[in-house]
Amino acid sequence: MAKSDFLSPKAIANCIKSKGLQKLRWYCQMCQKQCRDENGFKCHCMSESHQRQLLLASENPQQFMDYFSEEFRNDFLELLRRRFGTKRVHNNIVYNEYISHREHIHMNATQWETLTDFTKWLGREGLCKVDMTPKGWYIQYIDRDPETIRRQQKQERKKKQDLDDEEKTAKFIEQQVRKGLERKELEMSVCTELNQEKKEEKVTFNLKKGASTSVATSSKTSVLGQNALRMVEGALKRKQAAHSSGQPKEKKKKSALDEIMELEEEKRRTSRTDYWLQPEIIVKIVTKELGEKYHRKKAVVKEVIDKYTAIVKVIDSGHKLKLDQTHLETVIPAPGKKVMVLNGGYRGNEGILESINEKRFSVTITIDSGLLKGRRVKDIPYEDVSKLA
To answer: Where does the DNA/RNA-binding protein Kin17 WH-like domain start and stop, copy by copy (predicted)?
Structure first.
């Protein structure tokens, strides 16, 4: 039977069918050939080329399986490294991107039967960090490239060197300020008015280049010369004081301790993370995947795993569950109860809940532990505090 003509309806239909992914059961990994239907796959299995490939594979089947397994592992890890880096990602997302390439190695030709077995194998071999959540298996690539490690070490050394340079600069500025204050105290003098004993006496000023101003009188007027010199110095100092008075007064009054406290407050406001779980806090289960038995139930966090996962104990039934932080939310108690700050600059501090602002979805607490004991903190969001067990 002759082939269909170019751009005929049948030829176009065949081109459309041949694009994209086909069914895995009609793919031959040995011949790397994809068939569109069961009849085509049956004809391929009966072909001479396929029979030759089977004879080659039957001589050493383990060698072919090891080859396909190694290719699958290398391609999968290369995609994980280039596409996601060292981020924590669901294994099924990576696998779907991997199989989107038409010429990929199929998993049924490797030593792993399922994606879960392959994920567990990656964790046992130390190639990735794996953890199990109610949403499935999550993986995180471990970058052991010597070039990457060398680059990280170089960045750490540079950061340390920058800190050392900043400390040296701060010490130098402090020394200069101290010397300036000492010099200013030494140069302070009392200014007096110019009193001329005899009106006939002539006062002359001799201004020499590179030398200080000298005052001389035509007769015995040494006292008069000293008074004139003091008057000139006083005028210069008044001019400097007037020039410096244009600067804001707040900068003069602000001490180094005030600046350090402002920097600490700014650091506390900006130091937020994307994880908030802490042991011994009460949380509420918000996921419906576990059924109505656990939905909206309160539990106590017993252990935190990898910052994002926690083992909780349900208060009503006493059952222990392993849940991701996305399936939990914080619990706001009544005023007067103890709470813990879970995020921000006051993370880890315990306090007493004073009031609840329902309009701004925030609370006000008083810290009662640590170095900040007694400090009153306002406008903390609901999600940053939770009731203590």
So the answer is: 52-178
Check if CATH label 3.30.70.20 holds for domain 333-388. Answer: no
Q: Do domains 62-141 and 333-388 have the same CATH topology?
A: no
Listed in sequence order, the DSSP H helices in 100-145 are: 115-125
Q: Which residue has the tokens 């001329």?
A: 196
Task: Give 248's pLDDT tier (boundaries 50, 70, 90).
Answer: very low
Residue carrying the six token digits 């299995």: 45
Task: Kindly state the tokens that stand for 122.
Answer: 């990656």
Across 134-168, b (16+ Cβ under 10 Å) vs e yields: eeebbbbbeeeeeeeeeeeeeeeeeeeeeeeeeee
CATH numeric code, 273-331 = 2.30.30.140
Q: Which CATH number fits domain 62-141: 3.90.1180.10, 1.20.120.1730, 1.10.10.2030, 3.30.1050.10?
A: 1.10.10.2030
Amino acid at residue number 320: K
pTM of the model: 0.35
What's 383's DSSP letter?
G
How does pLDDT run across 283-301, given as a tens digit for each residue?
Answer: 999 988 888 888 899 999 9
Distance CA 349, CA 345 (A): 10
Q: Are 301 and 312 in contact (CB under 8 A)?
A: yes
User: What's the rounded Cα separation, in Å, for the pair 343 and 361?
Assistant: 15
User: Domain spans of the chain?
Assistant: 22-59, 62-141, 273-331, 333-388
